[in-house]
Amino acid sequence: MIHEVDEALRTLLAGSGLEASGVEIVLDAPTRDWAARRNAPTVCVFLYDIREDATRRGAGAGEVYDADGYVVARRTPPRWFELTYLVTAWASRPQDEHRLLSQVLATLVAVDALPQHLLTGSLAELGLTVALDTAGAEPDGPSASDVWSALGGELKASLGVRVRAPLAGTSSAAAPPVTEGLVVRATDHSQAADHGQDGDHGQDGDPVPGRRLRYEGVSDPGPDGFAAPRERRPAPARRRRGGRRP
């Protein structure tokens, strides 16, 4: 999930015209040594904090359907995480850095969620809204000054970007459908005991044939008249994609 958010953010910024103007978009840590090696205008999107949003943790399990509407697996609900990025611009002059940072800010504040067409992998499969908060209130994690201190660099202008993304739950295959009826055998246990036999053999020692119970109300039984048709359950309505987060 994390790499999918990385790629969506990078693609979103690249589509704003930054790459077309020769600006690199990287996910590196902006350390002092890294900054010394920069020789081209760069926008750095550095992930520095990951925290679970425990208030959105669900319970139970949902059902996964195949193309025909049959239950094929059960999946635990997704867990939501806040990914916090430090976004900075690097150029030869402060004026150029501020121009780049302004372009990044305009691109990010124009949306309150990552566009659905930019989501890949598990994020695209879940179809849930991945919220985006740019330059909002200071998160509960490390502050920007703490991050710069840990990186060994000097404090500079930056944007704090938080993404709330779901991590897909685990799936377990559903049990196969019932295809045969219950087999019932009736045996005279007293006579079987006198002949030293167990309860599912007759007096002659041969197995007692069983009787397979019919399913009531089966409109399309199997070839032996006893198999139950596979139950089909309607798939739940999908959540509308691209909705705004309440």
TrEMBL record:
Basic and acidic residues composition-biased segments: 188-204
Region (Disordered), start-end ranges: 188-246
Biased amino acid composition, Basic residues: 235-246
Matching InterPro entries: Pvc16_N
Organism: Streptomyces alanosinicus
Protein's name in the database: Pvc16 N-terminal domain-containing protein
Pvc16 N-terminal domain sequence ranges: 4-179
